[in-house]
TrEMBL record:
<feature type="transmembrane region" description="Helical">
    <location>
        <begin position="45"/>
        <end position="66"/>
    </location>
</feature>
<keyword id="KW-0472">Membrane</keyword>
<keyword id="KW-0812">Transmembrane</keyword>
<dbReference type="GO" id="GO:0022857">
    <property type="term" value="F:transmembrane transporter activity"/>
</dbReference>
<dbReference type="InterPro" id="IPR020846">
    <property type="entry name" value="MFS_dom"/>
</dbReference>
<feature type="transmembrane region" description="Helical">
    <location>
        <begin position="266"/>
        <end position="284"/>
    </location>
</feature>
<dbReference type="GO" id="GO:0005886">
    <property type="term" value="C:plasma membrane"/>
</dbReference>
<keyword id="KW-1133">Transmembrane helix</keyword>
<dbReference type="InterPro" id="IPR001958">
    <property type="entry name" value="Tet-R_TetA/multi-R_MdtG-like"/>
</dbReference>
<feature type="transmembrane region" description="Helical">
    <location>
        <begin position="235"/>
        <end position="254"/>
    </location>
</feature>
<protein>
    <submittedName>
        <fullName>MFS transporter</fullName>
    </submittedName>
</protein>
<dbReference type="InterPro" id="IPR053200">
    <property type="entry name" value="YfmO-like"/>
</dbReference>
<feature type="transmembrane region" description="Helical">
    <location>
        <begin position="161"/>
        <end position="181"/>
    </location>
</feature>
<feature type="domain" description="Major facilitator superfamily (MFS) profile">
    <location>
        <begin position="7"/>
        <end position="378"/>
    </location>
</feature>
<feature type="transmembrane region" description="Helical">
    <location>
        <begin position="202"/>
        <end position="223"/>
    </location>
</feature>
<dbReference type="Pfam" id="PF07690">
    <property type="entry name" value="MFS_1"/>
</dbReference>
<feature type="transmembrane region" description="Helical">
    <location>
        <begin position="322"/>
        <end position="342"/>
    </location>
</feature>
């Protein structure tokens, strides 16, 4: 799995930097609120604008990539992130940062959806191995992001934004020289293609499950720095532990559990355990030790879920992988967009326990959706040659509908 072409490693490196942007702002949420006189719900909009724009923009990634080619799309996304992150660091108000984070989200959408398809299509080995590589990059980026954010945040809350801009500039250069020119798709993708893909009941069920799971995921990510009430470096170390746990289980544990028990049984049990962890955080929100430990433990469940859901989407959808990635990402980032803002509002206006209860309920609802639609994901653990035949059958059924 680790013997890959330079092009795959170039994209994987850029993925690490891109995913750093998700957790990078965690340690500086409170400093931003204090320095710019903003409330938790206002600061949480840094996540909401970023995720909302990213989710909607996922619908255009295939349209752009199929017309200008994957490499140019990746470079365009990186360039937009460089500009958005840099301007966020130069902002004077919270709402300015929120606006530039939205631009950053547009760049991330162009990059992430294209990167996933590029790695899956270019990597040696099976789809499962390529996705593990992608999730390893995700996990490493999420792990390092809070650490870098905490370190730079001790200097200034602006530091992490400038740091991402500089790292993305480096990733841009690496991608230019190591990723070979990529041809355009044989058929240009339309805006309707991701919605057509969601007509496949299996893909739709997994996408809704991912939306609900991400609601809980980003409640934990965006709201927890406020009840923890620690310094930027302390919060950075806690979420670094969370990211390391996520990276470890996504690469090492998830494949082993999948081979032994099957994808869907592991996902169902894992989501239940994730909901239980959020419930523990709801009960012990005032206990900083329990809250911090729960964040790190939750990383174990997040890593397993991220890998298996992504792999299920790439294997189950009877469409091009770029289209499947766009449709799935559009749905899952919907949950990510709403959760931070809602958690901030509930924590401010009612109590600090409620956001976690709502997150736990959302993840449990995801368990129900996945259980109800599992019959449309038959053969998900079959060998890839068998999967291609099942996809052909599914495509024929979809057309017939």
């Amino acid at each position: 799995m680790w013997r890959q072409p330079k092009a795959v490693w170039a994209v994987a490196f850029a993925c690490v930097v891109a995913f750093m942007g998700i957790g990078l702002v965690d340690p500086i949420l409170k400093p931003i609120a204090e320095n710019l006189d903003a409330s938790p719900s206002q600061v949480s909009l840094l996540f909401t604008s970023y995720m909302a724009v990213m989710g909607v923009a996922m619908l255009i990634t295939g349209v752009v990539s199929s017309r200008i080619g994957p490499k140019r799309t990746l470079l365009l996304g990186l360039a937009v992130i460089i500009v958005g992150a840099g301007l966020a660091g130069m902002s004077a108000t919270v709402m300015e940062i929120v606006g530039w984070r939205a631009l950053w989200g547009l760049g991330n959408a162009l990059f992430i959806a294209t990167a996933l398809a590029a790695i899956v299509n270019s990597a040696k080995g099976s789809v499962a191995q390529a996705i593990i590589l992608y999730e390893a990059a995700l996990g490493l980026g999420i792990a390092v992001g809070p650490l870098v954010g905490g370190a730079l945040g001790t200097i200034s809350w602006r530091g992490p934004f400038f740091g991402v801009s500089a790292l993305m500039a480096f990733a841009f250069v690496v991608t230019v020289f190591l990723l070979p020119p990529t041809p355009r798709a044989e058929r240009a993708t339309t805006l309707a293609d991701p919605f057509r893909a969601l007509r496949h009941r299996g893909l739709f069920g997994v996408a809704v499950t991912a939306l609900l799971y991400n609601f809980g995921f980003f409640t934990l990510l965006a709201f927890t720095p406020f009840p923890l009430d620690m310094s930027a470096s302390e919060i950075g170390f806690i979420f670094f532990g969370w990211g390391v746990a996520l990276a470890f289980t996504s690469v090492v544990v998830a494949p082993r559990l999948q081979r032994r028990f099957g994808t869907l049984p592991v996902l169902l049990v894992n989501l239940v355990v994730m909901a239980a962890t959020l419930a523990v955080m709801a009960i012990f929100t005032d206990d900083k030790v329990v809250l911090a430990a729960s964040v790190v433990v939750a990383g174990l469940w997040c890593g397993i879920t991220n890998t298996l859901i992504t792999e299920t989407v790439m294997k189950a959808a009877p469409v091009e992988r770029g289209v499947a990635s766009a449709a799935y990402s559009f749905m899952r980032f919907g949950g990510a967009a709403v959760a931070p803002w809602l958690a901030g509002v509930l924590g401010e206006r009612i109590n600090v326990h409620l956001p976690y209860w709502v997150g736990a309920a959302a993840v449990l609802a995801g368990v129900g959706v996945l259980a109800l639609t599992r019959s449309h994901l038959r053969g998900i653990d079959a060998e890839e040659s068998e999967l291609e035949q099942l996809k052909d059958e599914a495509t024929a059924l979809t057309v017939g509908d």
